[in-house]
Amino acid sequence: MHNTIFSTPVISTLMRWFSLAYLKLAGWKIEGRLPEQARVSVFIAAPHTSNWDLPFTLMAAFALRLDIYWMGKEEIFKPPFRGLMMWLGGVPVRRSQSNNLVAESAQALKNATRPMQLVVPPEGTRSKVRYWKSGFYHIAQAANVPIILSYLDFGTKRLGLGPVLVPSGDLEADMVQIKAFYAPIRGKNPDQYNAE
């Protein structure tokens, strides 16, 4: 994977201080920490209901000393912003084309020589969807890494890392646990979120 702001020594330290100060002043509470066994992992990014999710996710990553890569639609990576978005940890996703994103992402996690967390929004869009996409689950299972239930709760102003889930291979059963965790969490635009 490419180098990012999170692996840029001086800037990442300054961004951590800024993120901690901003979140504290704005009344946000940071919860959880990354377990040692999850240094390479897949993060669920839910609920995803607003463009504000990205800056808050980046600040959470700095505050929690994470080294994240996040998936985003290819349209936000067009020039002149492509270099910046990639440096911020972005991985462009071409939603209109069938590609081998799961296999490529799993291989990148397997090949990781340093801590790496891949942030995947299972809704795949900020719009309300009835069903979550299961790509995050298949990536974690193929890479043999845990899934971290990360969250931004705009209702209670809490953000952080929730439980660690090791995929059991029973997608339906694991999704019941995942959805139960996210059910009370409120996105910035709660009417855009379906926790069923």
Indicate the structural class: alpha/beta
Number of helices: 6
Radius of gyration: 16 Å
The termini sit apart by 34 Å
User: How much helix is in the residues?
Assistant: 25-40%
Order of helices and strands: HEEHEHEHEHEEH
Strand content is 15-25%
Count of discrete domains? 1
Task: Give the mean pLDDT.
Answer: 89
The total beta strand count reads: 7
Low-confidence stretches: none
**Which word captures the global form?**
globular
| Main sheet strand line-up | 1-7-6-2-5-3-4
- Major sheet characteristics: 7 strands, mixed
Would you kindly provide a written description of the structure presented here, covering whatever features stand out?
With 196 residues, the protein is an alpha/beta fold. It has one domain. Helix content is 33%, strand content 20%. The protein is built from six helices and seven strands, in the order H-E-E-H-E-H-E-H-E-H-E-E-H. It has helices at 9-25, 53-63, 82-87, 101-110, 135-143, 171-182; strands at residues 29-31, 40-46, 68-73, 90-93, 116-120, 147-153, 158-165. It has a seven-stranded mixed β-sheet with strand order 1-7-6-2-5-3-4, sandwiched between helices. Helix 1 (9-25) packs across helix 2 and helix 4 packs parallel to helix 5 (135-143). It starts with 8 loop residues before the first helix and ends in a 14-residue tail after the last helix. The mean pLDDT is 89.
List the main descriptive attributes of the protein structure presented here:
33% helix, 7-stranded mixed β-sheet, 6 helices
